[in-house]
Every structure is written in structure tokens, then in C-alpha cells.
């Protein structure tokens, strides 16, 4: 298994490879193979981490504290692309990083959204910007445009954003339609916007499915499609506070068409007040499911492959799977000793696993994994369904982000397993030979015993027959004696 983690204390990336069953807290278990690269120091630690594939090549995308966005080759770990967002000040932080159809999206807590077009990166990546947090009351209409064109105006706009009390703490791009984004935060209800100049590419000669319509201002106009409404007041008739901590799109294939006239979306969010909520934009602005899953703030959320379950983590080490159908917890992933800062799910391709259609409970779930990392400085990997701990590795630093690269077993460990299996088979053969020898010896002993008993019986019969003969001779002798007397 191969997992990528971001080390907060050193600002580096660590690629950790280990066989299933590894636990560095227990002596005698196999040691992981850790490769450290892209070290930049604590002042530039990785805040967000994702993967990208550009023209068949795999890359690691990171967003660092201070506004640095970098891409590293996944195989060689060499720096491929770097871009510094000068307008982002130190107080701002990345809360979103996502790669969709050749476009890299970054979003900060101040609401600064940037879209980097990496389709033709050799000629320079085009960067487009928009502000998700409105800077004035006059921009409350459905169409929102920004007219600043230079860096001075950008810096002024960002300063105005940071002065606001509202901030964004959750951001997500629709995985099939990169022109649709959802975001929310502290005192900021969940909102869905459409990026107007991110459009589907109908040119068959171009490999890019989506593209950005260029403009001189490099500003992305956006349109508000939908905004959530708060739940009703509590039992004391007080307003329920709003703080969205993460958001995910559900059933993404149902609205993947770019020309859909009646857009409706299904989303799930977590809150810093311990709630999991599900929204249906076609039915209501209020959540159709609102469950308080715990007393502590939820800081991490991820969906499973079914879109009917989510996994969440809170600030007190709780990691649990939750059903969006029944509104109940399905089990806990135990072991974390502090806040869970990052979660990642991984489903291994079917050609790497030996699935059995007749087995509905065990083997067909073994290819689903979930990784956690946080303040306790441990990386943990579990099987999603059974919640079995597959690996536990001490990283030595706070884990700010985690991503599973590969769930297959390393070749060396697999070879060792095969050798152990062959040794066990040989031992079994030796045991069978020993058992056969023991059985043969027992059979021979039984035969010897039977022969001995038979010879004793024959000797006894012979003695008895001799005794009978001697008795007969004695009787005849007595008769002869009686005849001789007068």
C-alpha cells in the first residue's frame, strides 16, 4: 500500500509504502518505506493536497501556506509547475484545491477563487479569478461581475474581503461539470454558483472537454443558482448558528450534462456544530436530512462509492461512517488520539482484486479503504466495511493532508507472503509424511501384537492338548493295572 501525507511541521510530502498489517507502535512488525520530498518549512506547509492527470502523466498538486501552488511528478517527485498568488496575504488560507478536466481550482478562506488552465502548460498557464464573498451590498443580484483589472485593485479587493466577518471554510467543484461550484462557511449558508466563462468544449479536435473563454480582465463572471436556508429556530426560539466545514456533491452522474435546462443538485455538508445535512436543490432550500452526529465540531468529511454513505471526523478523534438513508452511524474507526484533519477514500480497481460474486460480506469489500491523519502524528488506513486497521504508521509530525495512491501489496511483501505460503505447504507435506509414518508404525505394532497373541494362543492350545494326552495315558495305565491283579 502506498499513501501520500503532508507533514505540517516540516512542510514536506512523505510517500509511505507498507504491507498490510504494519503497525509501528508494535515491535517486530514490518517497517514502512518512507520517502520525503518537497520540503519547504513550517511557514509554507501544505494546506491542501490532490492528484492530477495531464496528458496521461500523473502529478501531485499542493497548495501551501502563503499562496504557493505547486505540481510534482508523481513518479520522480520533481517540481513540474509552481505559481505564487501574490495577492493572498499570510492571514488567508487555502480551503479548497481540486483538479477537474484539466482545470485546477484553488479557493481561500477569504473567498478568492482562482482557476488555472493546465491544458497547454508549456506556453504558460492561464489564471482566472473571481471573488466568492461579495464585497458590497450592491452585488446581491443573481449576476455578479468584477471590474478590477490590475494587481492594485486585486490587493484592495482582497483586503476588503478579509475585513468581513464572514469567511469560507468549505469549497467543492462538481466533478463532472467544472462550471458549477458550491461553497459555504462561518455565517455563510451553502451556495451554488455557475462560472459563466467555463464552458464545455465541443471541438472534437481538442482533447479538453472543458475550457475557459479568455478575456482581457482574467475575471470569471459568476451567477448564483441556489442558496440554502437555515433550519428553524431551536427550542428557545434562537437562531441556529451556521458554520459549514465541508461539502460534497452527490449523484454526480445524474446531472453531468452541460446543457441541462433544469439543474438540480444533491449535496451533503458537515458543520462545526456537529451536524450532517443533505440538500435537494429541486425540492427545498432547507435540508431534507439534518442529524446531529456528535457534540464536537466536524472538521473532515468524505463520501464513499455509493453516495449513500459518508465518513466524517471531528476535533476529538472520532471517525465514523454515516448512512444518509437511515440517518444513523454505521460504525466507528477507532484509534485516533486527536483531531482528524484529513480523510481520503480509495477503491482499488477490480482487476487487482480477486472478487467472488458468491461472497456478499467479505471479499468484495476488501478493496475499499479509508485513510486518516491528524494531530496525533499517525497515519491510519482501515478497510471501509469491516473497519479493520490495515496499517498504522508514525509520521513524526502533524498530518495536514492525506491521499491514498495505491492499495496493492508491495512486491517484496507479496513475494515474502508467497514464500511463507510455500514453506507452509512444505511443512504440511512433511507433517503428512510424518503422520503416514506414524500410522504405518502403529499398524506394524498392531500386527506384531496380533501375531504375538496368536502364537500365545497356539502354545496354550498345544499345552492343553498335551495335558489331555497325558491324562488319557494315565487312565489306560490304571486299567492295565487293574487287569493284572488276581
Please explain how this structure is put together.
With 486 residues, this protein is an alpha+beta fold. It has 2 domains: 411 residues, Methylamine Dehydrogenase, Chain H (7 Propeller), CATH 2.130.10; 74 residues. Helix content is 18%, strand content 39%. The protein has 2 helices and 32 strands. The strands form 8 sheets. The protein has a 5-stranded mixed beta sheet with strand order 3-31-30-29-28, with no helix packed on it. About 10% of the residues have low confidence.
Question: In a few lines, what is going on in this structure?
Answer:
This protein is α+β, with helices and mostly antiparallel strands and 486 residues long. The protein has helices at 151-162, 411-484; strands at residues 2-7, 12-17, 22-23, 33-37, 46-54, 57-64, 68-73, 79-84, 94-100, 103-108, 112-117, 126-131, 143-144, 167-173, 180-186, 188-195, 198-200, 210-212, 222-227, 244-250, 266-271, 275-280, 289-292, 298-303, 309-314, 319-323, 329-332, 340-347, 368-374, 378-383, 389-394, 399-406.
